[in-house]
Description:
Blueprint lengths: L21 E3 L5 E3 L13 H6 L6 H8 L11 H9 L6 H5 L6 H11 L3 H12 L4 H10 L2 H7 L5 H8 L11 E5 L2 H8 L3 E5 L1 H4 L4 H14 L2 E3 L8 H5 L3 H17 L4 E4 L2 H8 L14 H10 E3 H4 L4 E4 L7 E3 L14 H10 L3 E2 L12 H5 L1 H19 L11 E4 L2 H10 L5 E4 L8
Parallel strand pairs: 4-5, 4-6, 6-7, 9-10, 9-11, 11-12
Antiparallel strand pairs: 1-2, 3-8
Helix pairs in contact: 2-5, 3-5, 7-9, 8-9, 9-21
Amino acid sequence: MKVNDKFGDTSDDKFNDKSDGIFNDKSGAKTERDCVLCGCCLEQCPLFAATGREELSPRAKALLAGPSKFAAATLDEAAVAELAGLCLACGKCEKLCPQGVSVPRLIARLRAEHPDFRQWLWKQWITRLKPFWSLAAKGAALMPESMTSALAPAGLGLALKGLRGLRPGLGLRPWLAITKFPAEAYRQKHADRPVVLFDGCVGSGPRKVWADTARRLLRGLGANLAEAGFSCCGSTLGVAGLPGDQLAARRANVAAWRKAGRPLVVTYCATCRKGLAEYVGPEGGAGLFADAEEEAAWTASVTPLSALLAGAQAKAGRGAPAIVGWHKPCHADLGVGPADSDFKLMGALLGARLRTPAKAGCCGFGGIMQLGAPELSARVGAACWDGLDGALGFSAAPEVTPAYVLTDCSGCVMQLCATAPQGARVGHWLEVIAAK
Ligand code: SF4
Ligand code: SF4
């Protein structure tokens, strides 16, 4: 029996696709599906798992922000705004929802309707202050630990630790040399098509080493590298409830891609990839693409770097840790291209050296949620590290197996750095790739 059948919701199944939470009602009009309280989403919600609080569950948020706005009608403005802030936008719930309810999308809409200082701060940070990120990271690193602790009650302790995580070279050294590139397979598939790298906000700033290494790898494949001048993918702006700024970022990126001759767009961040994938469809934004053909060309052009490197061979050199942990970002399989391709590439290159928890945890970053509820963000982060410890066993013998964790999302890198146990090493997988 399908989950929906339990609730007698079968009337329009054969006519409607539940994947986007929209269905055609009997008059043919598009209608948004509402939560049926089945609870299928609860077990995967990191906030609910870490707190057990029903008001933080996806189900409660769907009642707050879904078509019925059932809970919102009984709460005052301040309570609605507070609850709207308490979601990591991890998307784990929507993967399980038989109704196709997208809580992150509902919450983004609710945040836009109830703006507060966090959105303003986030907007400045993403759209105006990017040139100063490296400076801010250095400043945070110079701050004594006592000052970081003193700022914790004001909710800034975790954000400052995350800022430190923006600095390059936090304990990671390159030790993995690519010995063979799948250049022939690349040439057969893409020939001389121009390729541009989507550096992302962190890779174009404080962790430029990611973009530099990615370009080196693309040259190793024989790619015809070009430049396109992209801005933020817009994902984090949309989640924060800033749809106008998100659309502006999307428009700027599509225009840059068009100007560059519609090249292949290569990414190395799971959240950027998800953000770029969301440009298409009714949620992407009116007039973003000239026509359906251009929209399809965009989808076909966004490609994970790791997918292009499938079939590469590598050799671990001096300094290689015996055990390497992998943190799977929540957005790893929500973008375009092969699902979770970064993990697959690293698994093929590192073999048994690479370990990951059977159940992927959320790092707890959540964009603006970290600003408004750092204690919750830290609690989810601690649960994530517990899961990594279960797979790696670093707390039992840290001198033999130090915590060493790679991932493929810039937000996860920042948050894992902020919540890591003493002595842990964390970074993007590109940081361990050695220059040839
Ligand atoms: S998006 Fe993540 S944190 Fe938000 S309700 Fe869904 S599972 Fe929970
Ligand atoms: S959000 Fe979806 S999965 Fe969660 S309780 Fe509602 S209908 Fe069920």
